[in-house]
Amino acid sequence: MDVRREVPQLAAVVEEVFAAGTNKTLATTRADGSPRISGTELEVGDDVTLGMMPASRKLRDVERDPRVAIHSPTIEPPKDLAQWVGDAKLAGRLVPIPQPAGGLPGAYFALDVTEVVHTGMDATGTRLVVTAWHPGRGITRVERE
């Protein structure tokens, strides 16, 4: 992922947040253009990869329109908000890849990442911080009270 090369600290935080739990949320687009969300699991290695069951609705959505958004597991913030790991989002297009050795029947994809976002708190736990990266545009950071 280019984000690892351009902003390794953001990439590391987002990977940590995604690793904090098993179940992520995948957003796809239905045939009528409305959104669909589904539970999913993914692997973060050299690429972000995931699989889908054959003939599943989310697979049909992705075959029709490969644009997706993926939300990290939601971890309840602690009382000390400065300690919250935050949440993270990835977006991009899913690109078919071969079934991995030992993989279950289905379709497998790598995410061509077009957006990485981390939402967390500043060191004082008083300001919400949204950090985003887009290829070709770089990084943006917004703080809110």
From TrEMBL:
Alphabetical list of InterPro entries matching this protein: Split_barrel_FMN-bd
Protein name: Pyridoxamine 5'-phosphate oxidase
Superkingdom field: Bacteria
